[in-house]
Amino acid sequence: MQKNIICVACPMGCGVTVELDDNGTIVSVTGNTCKRGDAYARTEITNPVRSLATTVKVEGGVFNVVPCKSSGALPKDKVFDCMEVINSVCAKAPVKLGDVLVSDILGTGIDIVATNHCPIK
Amino acid sequence: MLNYDIVVIGGGPAGMAAALKAKECGVDSILILERAETLGGILEQCIHTGFGLHYFGEELSGPEYADRFISLVDEQKIEYKTDTMALEITENNVVYAVNKTDGLLEIQSKAVILAMGCRERPRGALNIAGSRASGVMSAGTAQKYVNIDGYMPGKKVVILGSGDIGLIMARRMTLEGAEVKVVCELMPYSSGLTRNIVQCLDDFNIPLRLSCTVIGIHGKDRVEGVTIANVDENRRPIPGTEEYIECDTLLLSVGLIPENELTRAVGIELDPVTSGAVVDENRETSHNGVFACGNVLHVHDLVDYVTLESQTAGEGAARYVLGGNNEPEYITTKGVNGVRYIVPQKVNIKNDGDVKLYFRVGQVYKNAKTVVKYNGEEIISKKRPRLAPGEMESVIIKNDMLKGFAEGGIIEISVEE
Ligand SMILES: Cc1cc2nc3c(=O)[nH]c(=O)nc-3n(C[C@H](O)[C@H](O)[C@H](O)COP(=O)(O)OP(=O)(O)OC[C@H]3O[C@@H](n4cnc5c(N)ncnc54)[C@H](O)[C@@H]3O)c2cc1C
Ligand code: SF4
Known about the structure:
The complex is a heterodimer of chains A (121) and B (417). Chain A is α+β, with helices and mostly antiparallel strands and 121 residues long. Chain A is 18% helix and 35% strand. Chain A folds into two domains: 46 residues; 62 residues, CPE0013-like fold, CATH 3.10.530. In chain A, the strands form three sheets. A five-stranded mixed sheet of chain A has the order 8-5-6-10-9. The radius of gyration of chain A is 19 Å and the shape is elongated. Chain B folds into three domains: 190 residues, FAD/NAD(P)-binding domain (3-Layer(bba) Sandwich); 133 residues, FAD/NAD(P)-binding domain (3-Layer(bba) Sandwich), CATH 3.50.50; 90 residues, Immunoglobulin-like (Sandwich). The N and C termini of chain B lie far apart (57 Å). The site of flavin-adenine dinucleotide (FAD) has 39 residues of chain B, from helix 1, strand 6, strand 9, helix 3 and helix 4.
């Protein structure tokens, strides 16, 4: 089987083709201009990850929500489940930049941390 | 009347970086005026990560990037007034501003730094037929609703324009449960970064239709749908390709324009291509002692470059105030053959450092060359595997080269395939 992906490791945006055998093992990676493309394509096929940035509701703050991000990349297929967890929590003002709002989200070992301050109203 | 050495108009990343640099260069009397409640500018609503990769070597979110500078402004005890709108600057660098506590402020300043950023092109600039139903807004307005007010403006979304803000909002609305039906782009290419197309559209199977536009908006009180159509090479809709798409929201991401009302009013020369001021390498405008930097000067895609440019302006303003400027001898710069514009538009050859010229191309090129010529003679040529309108390019003119130029000379940058 062949999978075509676009390497986003740099602005070149090379089209990379990954050849897989019947067991899903990578046989070859072609089309990349440099080594980074090879590495990117391999993780993208075997264990695609994404970082997540969203907001968390805040009670009693000057703003209704505070922005947050995942402390590291999350498995791509867990992103929507993580959104559900994040949308179910409500932080209490004051929130400080760097505060952990959800720790070890869905057992991934990744925290959801505030990326701005939200003082008390 | 208040007196300051430097008044900075706009407290976004540009204004803060310029003020900090001017302070570092020895100017103590600095005031930043910011219209919004807080410093930080548009970054406060750009909650996705990807800022600061060049400048800090880290992937920060917009608010985190801004916070680093807000902390420095506080640490350096630079004065600022928020909720304060600058209204006018005069020939003599008097700045008029207004806020609720002080009323009208009259501020005499030796130098002024313009850092007002840009705003999005409104719907009026577009001319789409149809009703004035609610649900049509700029992508940046939607970004503010979702990320600052915590309010989702719609459930079924069509986005017109594939600039980065549109792409980022396609992902953001999808994550929050909306269905983004399609992103239409008038041009045959997207002006957004490839990584944004991959991570914001492809990841969520959102179709991107190139050479396609919205030709009609339907609905009375609220948008109920839009009609899209393919366009020919002259960007005219092709009859027979119309398609109705049901949606309750239309986001427009059709470009940014520098916010230069103040600049225009005082008669500062503007560049018709950038819609920003014409500046020299210190980012000084045609008006003595008035500098400009960041998105008010030309639209940047990376905030990191905004920071660097603003430091240049801050340093230039400090030198102006402290009196280190010599009588300038200018050469001009000009983009030709595929290069849309160059900033700065003029360079003082008596400058004692290297000068970096920033430029943008008008279309996508693969395996092309950028060529710099001085009075028609090639002086620098560089192979570029990829050039795109969405990515700012730069070239450095070394000081020894500059020293060999004569007043009135012309530097041209072009693309050769
Ligand atoms: C909606 C939107 C989304 C963006 N998203 C991204 C992104 O995802 N990634 C990225 O790298 N770049 C993004 N950009 C570009 C980003 O704006 C720049 O990288 C950077 O923020 C520009 O900094 P600035 O200080 O020049 O402008 P701004 O951040 O816009 O700051 C200008 C400031 O000046 C103030 N101001 C304006 N007029 C006056 C006045 N008359 N008196 C007082 N204050 C005034 C404004 O309130 C504002 O705070 C985006 C831009 C917009 C408009
Ligand atoms: S393969 Fe290399 S050159 Fe191509 S996009 Fe990836 S990192 Fe860039």
